[in-house]
Fold this protein.
Amino acid sequence: MLFKVEMTVRLPATMPVAEAEALKTTEREVAQGLMRQGRWRHLWRVAGRYANVSIFDVDSVEQLHQLLSGLPLFPYMDIDVAPLCRHPSSIRDDDR
Ligand SMILES: O=C(O)CC1=CCC(=O)O1
């Protein structure tokens, strides 16, 4: 199951820089692990915003929730999720 996920990061202005940098480092490690597993298929920065648009490939909505809620930045993100299905005009055969 594919999902478009938009994450907007809202770190508190009062958070110490070292704490914020540690969170971002851990977030990168977790994200890259999920990418290697094929769960986090795409990660794009939204230009001009501290936000990303991502594509997740998961077995269930529950699994998606588990992955998202396990992200180190989860407490500091607004997250919008949209389910995706194949577009009838797509010529790609690798989208499920
Ligand atoms: O910077 C972001 O958009 C949040 C984030 C997601 C994966 C990652 O490494 O950072």
Residues 2-84 form a domain with the Alpha-Beta Plaits fold (CATH 3.30.70.1060).
